[in-house]
Amino acid sequence: MTSVARKALNIALVQMKVTANKALNLQVAREKVLQASQKGADLVVLPECFNSPYGVQHFKDYAEPVSPTPGESVQALAAMAKDARVYLVGGTIPEVVPATQKVYNTCPVFDRQGNLLTTHRKVHLFDIDVPGKITFKESAVLSAGDHLTQFQTEFGAIAVGICYDLRFPEMAMIAARQGCIGMVYPAAFNTTTGPVFFELLQRARAVDNLFYVATCSPARSEDPKSYPAWGHSTVVSPIGEVLATCGHEETTVHSQWDLGAMEEARTSYPIYHQRRFDLYPDVSQSNKN
């Protein structure tokens, strides 16, 4: 593991209401990103499906390209990052690949100059059937991503996952073993899975790897026909403490990733030097980036 200087990254999670009006969603996102920047944010995170309603019936209708010619959402996100001078984890958008017509749930990430640093396509698709509560099958419309994603900042490398990716500890283990200071997950958990798993999974990913975890959810809509987002966007410390969170309402959560505190935690709890790779494999060595 690499050593880090004692400095702090200011992070903001924009828990915004999402409507069926893409232009309005982009406008609201811009306003909130700029507001977060004015409050000192270095890294701003938008929620999963921030530009469109979340649902298999909506993905194709709202899908747009990321490359070679970016669609309106990617262009808007680039302008937000540049004007706010922040790193922007641009939530997710339904991405269509013109050459194949495949649709992905994709997170574009931008630097402070508005340049597209990387994209993460949701690796683990949300296919679930809880009798009497919720049935959802992203794979009916979406294709799964085929790579893990990290991006560099002056604070250190940060990894990206999307919602259901949080359920799979290997992604976070690989990121931590490869030197990331934390993981960010745009995530639209719902009122069935959220109360049971959302905070628990974040704290587990953080404490198992002694790094920071942040999640950003949409705010819950008052429309009973819309997807019931759980909300509760959260920042968790390397020792599993909830540093900042909220309810289901529209808000922006501000917190810090203190890199000195992370270093101290890794010194106090030296799991990175105690693993037994003679008995089990180091998953970071077999990762396909």
Automatic annotation (TrEMBL):
InterPro entries linked to this entry: C-N_Hydrolase, C-N_Hydrolase_sf, Nit1/2_C-N_Hydrolase, UPF0012_CS
EC number of this enzyme: 3.5.1.3
Gene3D superfamilies per UniProt: Carbon-nitrogen hydrolase
CDD domains linked: nit
GO cellular component entries: mitochondrion
Residue ranges occupied by any CN hydrolase domain in the UniProt entry: 9-259
This protein's UniProt keywords: Hydrolase
PROSITE patterns in UniProt: CN_HYDROLASE, UPF0012
Pfam families given in the database record: CN_hydrolase
Transferase keyword on record: no
UniProt keyword Coiled coil, yes or no: no
Highest taxon above the source species: Eukaryota
Biological process (GO), any one: glutamine metabolic process
Gene Ontology MF terms in the entry: omega-amidase activity
Catalytic class of the enzyme: hydrolase
PANTHER family reported in the protein's UniProt record: NITRILASE-RELATED (PTHR23088), OMEGA-AMIDASE NIT2 (PTHR23088:SF30)
Family affiliation: Belongs to the carbon-nitrogen hydrolase superfamily. NIT1/NIT2 family.
Protein name per Swiss-Prot or TrEMBL: Omega-amidase nit3
Origin species: Dispira parvispora
